[in-house]
Write a structure and sequence with these properties.
By secondary structure, this protein is an alpha/beta fold. Helices cover 49% and strands 18% of the residues. The longest helix has 19 residues, at 251-269.
């Protein structure tokens, strides 16, 4: 059957994200500037916090907001990165977690870390897109996501898939870098260019999507001040390894990443970006 042009466009967008995170240059940047366990934004308490320290604090904060989290809780992590959140949920709460993620490289690292920590049987790592979650309806008690939904060109479709796979009363909890309410359009484009995006979601947009799909808001925790700190720490890590990264990735690529990260730092400091934990329940 001939492919619908719109479907082809969406498939191309998904493949673009997969290719970005599977590229050797992006992997090298992540290996030197990000944490081993946590690739997502962190909550920073002092200047000595590493990216992994701050990332762990975010995971603990999100988990503390989930009602009745325990050994019987079925969790799906969409855009799971290296799976640090899944291993925490298994260790601390006994949850069995499915990690759905596009990047083959990140998924391979996730599986290696699970084997290292002897939790491979509790964590199922699945190659796939959260725009088309490969499970039946009402399969999970919790859908968890950190800083991944921004990469979708069909964010409402992501929300619809989340609502579909959640059981009645199930919880959807996630973080995402969002466009601030007062962000001028001309300020947003340099921010988007860093990770090849054409838009960002917003708190208002996510709330509207959730409401349309029968997801009731339980809480929102604004963590915006940590966004600029986080990207500043990533930039510091890159600068500390700039010489080696330039040899591996080329001066032009490293300069583009440096410039892009600075735009995210500036966007956070100027109030153009917002970040926090959004928590919903399926009715």
């Amino acid at each position: 059957m001939k492919e619908n042009p719109a479907e082809g466009q969406y498939a191309e967008a998904v493949e673009s994200v997969r290719s970005y995170y599977n590229s050797d240059d992006v992997r090298r940047i992540y290996d030197t500037s990000y944490g081993e366990e946590h690739l997502h934004l962190g909550i920073y308490e002092n200047d000595e916090d590493t990216v992994d320290d701050a990332g762990q604090r975010t995971v603990e904060r999100i988990a503390s907001m989930i009602h009745e989290l325990g050994p019987g809780t079925r969790v799906l992590d969409i855009g799971a990165g290296h799976g640090g959140s899944a291993r925490f949920l298994f260790r601390e709460y006994g949850c069995h977690v499915a990690c759905l993620n596009l990047s083959d490289i990140q998924n391979a690292r996730n599986r290696d870390l699970n084997a290292r920590d002897r939790c491979s049987l509790a964590i199922n790592v699945v190659d796939g897109s959260f725009e088309d979650i490969p499970v039946t309806d009402d399969s999970f008690d919790v859908v968890w996501s950190q800083d991944a939904i921004l990469h979708s060109t069909r964010r409402r479709q992501v929300f619809a898939e989340v609502a579909r796979v959640l059981c009645k009363g199930g919880q959807f909890i996630f973080t995402d870098p969002m466009q601030g309410e007062l962000c001028p359009p001309e300020a947003l484009q340099p921010i988007l260019d860093r990770v090849h995006l054409d838009s960002l979601g917003s708190l208002r947009e996510y709330r509207a999507m959730a409401s349309e799909l029968g997801l009731q808001e339980l809480d929102f925790v604004d963590l915006t001040p940590h966004l600029a700190t986080h990207y500043g720490r990533i930039l510091e890590g890159l600068l500390a390894n700039e010489k080696d990264l330039t040899k591996q990735c080329g001066a032009d690529h490293v300069q583009r990443v440096k410039t892009g990260l600075q735009h995210w730092v500036d966007g956070g400091e100027r109030g153009y970006l917002q970040w926090g934990v959004l928590h919903f329940r399926k009715g």
